[in-house]
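Many introductory courses stop at the sequence. We go one step further.
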Amino acid sequence: MKSEFLIATNGFESTWPSIEYGAWAAASINAPLTLLGIAEHLPSAPIDDKYPLEDIFARAVEVFQQKGIRYSLEIQNGDAEEIIPREAKKRDCITVVGPLGRAPLRRFLVRRSIHHLIAEISTPILYVPQARLPLKKMLICLGGLGYEITAENLAIRLGAMSKAGVTLLNVVPPVELDYPTARAVREHWRDLVDTDTLPGRNLRMALETARSAGLSASIKARQGNVVEEILAEIKEGDYDLVCMGSQYSAHTLRQMYMPNITDEVAETAQCPILTARYNPE
């Protein structure tokens, strides 16, 4: 687990769930946190008027103190999408962020902020549109290539603190290529864990990791469009936390033409999403 949490807010009420959730996560593993306030538009009103950051900082400090968390406070002026990645690069941390209250037109033109943050931040990210607490049910999405291992280990560490149940989800997309491994995956997608394919081995490893942490873990298999199947499982399973690898784990041209599944899920799902790039260390 990373050594600290960086929680970012620009004062919008939509970021409060990320503060609440980040405080819970930090308290769970006894980690320090930094609350980073971003003053994006300095007020033109009289100096006596309260700025939104003041209120959200006061509420956050009360929560931190109640939980006995070691914390520090920082405020910077500028654009959140620029400041958050810059500060995350300076620390060995998990970045916790929620919706930044962007206008619909801006989201339409440049996509949601989480798309930019996932691309720019190489350390783990907790995106929290809603604070689903207590943590009882956790979904870990396995992509078959092992890129989710770093995020998986972080999620299991958090889940172990609350004895959450874990579902390991493997989605087999339509396979058009005809070679031995592809045929094995296509024919055995329901019982892939019993095969000697790379996805099968990764499933067994994930199952062993979760159970060795004392968690109740099971495997769920689905077939079809990956994004649609993950979103369907999230809705049907009513999960409190979803864990995914990152497209940017791959350092090849794959990420130039593959869909960014994590982005699309994070933009739609209404529960916390934990994502991290694969780190062989």
